[in-house]
Each structure stands twice: as C-alpha cells, then as structure tokens.
Amino acid sequence: MTTPLWQIDSFAEEPFTGNPAAVALLPHAASDSWMRRVAAEMNLSEAAFVVAEGNRYRLRWFTPTVEVDLCGHATLAAAHALWESGVCKAGLPIEFATRSGPLIATQTDGKIVLNLPATVSTPTHAPATVLKALGVHPISTRHFTQGLMLELATEEEIRSAAPDYLRLAEAEEDDFIITARSRDPRYDFVSRFFAPAHGINEDPVTGWAHCCLGPYWATKLGKNELTGRQLSNRGGTVGVRVLGKDPASDQPDGDRVELAGKAITVLRGELVTPVDPS
C-alpha cells in the first residue's frame, strides 16, 4: 500500500515562498523510527504525519533529526492537504490531537486559521556567547520554553544578522528568535528564527514562534491583531490574533493565539515504502 504524500508551502503568497512542509497521510499509526527516517529523507524543516482517529486526526511533527512538540507551518500544511484531497469537507473545522493538546484548523477568507496555545516569555539576559554567535545587540531579551527571543532596535539589524551556526548549536538553548518593529506599514513586526541544534539553521517561516511573538508584540503595540513578516530568504507572512488578553494589560501573554496564512501545494505523490506500524 502506498502513502499519499504532499509538499506544501505554508504562510506563502506564491509557490516557492513561505515554509515547505512534507505531509504524509498514514493508513495507521507508524513507528517513531520510520517517521524519523522519512523526515530525514524529505530533508525539510518539518514533516507532518497524519492518521485518522475517529472524528479527529493524530498529528506528529519531525524535523530531519528530532520530533517536536509543536509546528505551526506543518499543521497549516496538514489541514490544507486534508481539505484539498477531499478527505475532509471544505469549510468544516479539523481537529488535530497532538503533543501540545487539541489544535483546531478552520478556513476563513481564503486563509487557514490555526488555534494554538500561546507561549509565555519572561525577561532574561542572553549569555555573551549567544550574543557573539548571533552577532546582535538586543534592546530586550526574553526566555521562552527552550529558547531566547531578542528584540533588536531596527529591521535592518534583523536583515543583516549572520549567525555562527556552529557556535549557536553549542548553546544551552535550542531555539532563537530575533525580532524588531517593521518599517513596512503592511506589517507590525519582523523576525527570523534559528534552531541549529534541531538540524535547522534558519527556518523559513516559523508558525509556533509567532505563538510567542504575538503576545509579546500585542503588549508592546497595544493591540490583539497583528501581522508578522519573517525575513528569511523565502519570506512569509503570518497573521496573529491573541486571544484571552486585554490590550491595556501589562501582562505579556494571552491564553491562545490564532495564526492565519495561505498554503500552496507544490508537489503531490506517493510514498511507496511500506509504513512500519507503531
């Protein structure tokens, strides 16, 4: 039996932009080692593996080297594949069961909207070794889950940053976001994301990073609905709405966030290697 396989550009305005993800629709649950090998074979920042569980879908994400707890762009791609293939009826919500709890995908105004958990960040100081590896001088540094988010003074500093990935991979933290206010009035903030310890030097567009960026910038800018632009070579746009937050509050986090973006299929085929059962 073959397995349907897609390559989909998420948070993309046109093909070959945004963040590509592989999506495999499995006939049954697969072993961790098999999914890890498929993700390495695809060699994209993430591969999503989907299997039906009653009225919902079990969803897991793998980089070329590790399984991750949450991946926004691969979730967007998985929802797009299910709707585009006709497995799920267009216009109806899709519920995913994941390591980060239940995630809901809906369709609105030509975009896919994901309801995801917000990520709390707290003030901290970046080690000198990290600042040297990133080559930046932040005006604010915050800690989140397994990484650091550094606000820089200008968009130009975000664009010109040239990290030393070998040194960055040796840091205690795994993930690094740099961000600044956007000089382009179409966007509220810009960012870049690096995770060399996970086999991803620079991620093209990082959905789950916006689960942290959204609450942070909502507090700074005093509004719940924002638009972020990730300044990788491919580039991508992420709409963010912070839920459960009062814009007048000085608390940096809400309960949930909604991320909105477009997805474009660039490759559709079959994986002929049999699925190893879990």
TrEMBL record:
Pfam families: PhzC-PhzF (PF02567)
GO MF: isomerase activity
Keywords assigned: Isomerase
UniProt-annotated catalytic positions: 46
Gene Ontology CC annotations of this record: cytoplasm
EC number: 5.1.-.-
First-tier enzyme category under EC: isomerase
Source organism, top-level taxon: Bacteria
InterPro entries for the chain: Phenazine_PhzF-like
Family named by the database record: Belongs to the PhzF family.
Name of the molecule in the record: Putative isomerase YddE
